[in-house]
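Supplementary Methods S3. Input chains for the assembly prediction are listed below.
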Amino acid sequence: MSDYPGLVALAVDVVTLTVRDDKLHILLVQRSIDPFVGQWTLPGVFLAKKWMGKEWEELTDAAERALESKAGLVAHVEQLGTYGSRGRDPRNHVVSVAYIAFAPDLGDPTPGPHVSDAKWEPVAALEGGWGLEGLAFDHNAIALDGVIRAQNKLEYTTLATRFLPEEFTIGDLQKVYEAVWMREIDSGNFYRKVKQTKGFIVPINERRGRAQLYVAGEATMLYPPIRKGD
Amino acid sequence: MSDYPGLVALAVDVVTLTVRDDKLHILLVQRSIDPFVGQWTLPGVFLAKKWMGKEWEELTDAAERALESKAGLVAHVEQLGTYGSRGRDPRNHVVSVAYIAFAPDLGDPTPGPHVSDAKWEPVAALEGGWGLEGLAFDHNAIALDGVIRAQNKLEYTTLATRFLPEEFTIGDLQKVYEAVWMREIDSGNFYRKVKQTKGFIVPINERRGRAQLYVAGEATMLYPPIRKGD
DNA sequence: TGAATAGTGTCTCTCAGACAATATAAC
DNA sequence: GTTATATTGTCTGAGAGACACTATTCA
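Predicted structure tokens for the full assembly:
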């Protein structure tokens, strides 16, 4: 750390994933300003120099602000990766720190400033692109990395419960795995597997129909993992 | 992506890991300029505005330049994460993109400009810190994240071969796993496991003593993974 | 009444861990 | 010869995948 620091514009973009109608969806916003007017992108903001009375905003705060200000949604985020290729922004050099958010069904988004529309876009089980090819900047690649990250994290973490409301059934949980992995799972095996993994889900004294309801347990990692195969 | 872009200084720091004397080591350099003169850090540079005749350097190029210019070493890098907390640099706000490099034993490093010394530091099997507590900036945390990342990637990728020269024995490979995971492995089980994972290692028509020599295969992912346990 | 969902049970195969055994090179 | 390393083999138990079966709720 020395030499001659060039100063760069730092953007923060968010891949927000949810499960609606038993299918994986990603949050997109439509730009109403240049560059790329009218095109769809991930919600993002520039890192603010002043924020809450302090110098410079934290990266995670910026990511949550992007979600809130562009789409009116609130969710926790975690870092995905940083994208700094030349030419990814036509104006000048912009490095973008991407975040990923896993949300339960939050309802429809509300377009914020500089955004003409906002929507949940289904992520289709297509080869390579998953139907995410039309985005501006390099947001196709970022969105793809986000989906892959989510698929992998379902294997070895308890992340799946973050797509669900407080109380859920094992069937609900199975549908999250099926939506994110885009494949069917044998429910008998899934029941056995999920119930024997201690700390993953905790039964409560309530049922929906004849289905037992559960809440998320305190575990964050799954040992052994639930393999998605291949 | 809109609003008011504040401009930040972007640093790139590298966690370089190797296995020497059957133990995991990390590359450190000693600063000869302010701030933190005399303290040890990860090698890093600021992203250059002009590089190879073009505007702005690529992030991975900057990471490899950090290794080369500060320690005289050449290795491939991959991204680890981005660190942007307020107060991580005493001068002003600096966001750092951290990279990780996995290298075979490259010999001793050569201190470059603004560096008074460079060394391979053993990563000890201590609780929490692994003996990496004395670094400047937030480089303790970055180094720790790098070691954990390496431990995890050995499970499900063929990364371990990147710590070895072209040709190696299964015993050599086992020592890499033992050094990075800091635990002993049963060699009988390890032999069986590694040989039945197709694409991981390929035998060549040569031996060292009575040990069969291998080269890395074309696989990058391991299915099923080699679990480190816990 | 029938279909979808919730949940249990069973069988087989693979694989991981523990550990024994053997063979050969190096000292 | 002795020791360390390389390599194969054997046994056991846990867990995954395939699939059958039952019970109950809802349309």
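The helical segments of chain A are 59-71, 139-156, 170-181, 187-196. The mean pLDDT of chain A is 92.
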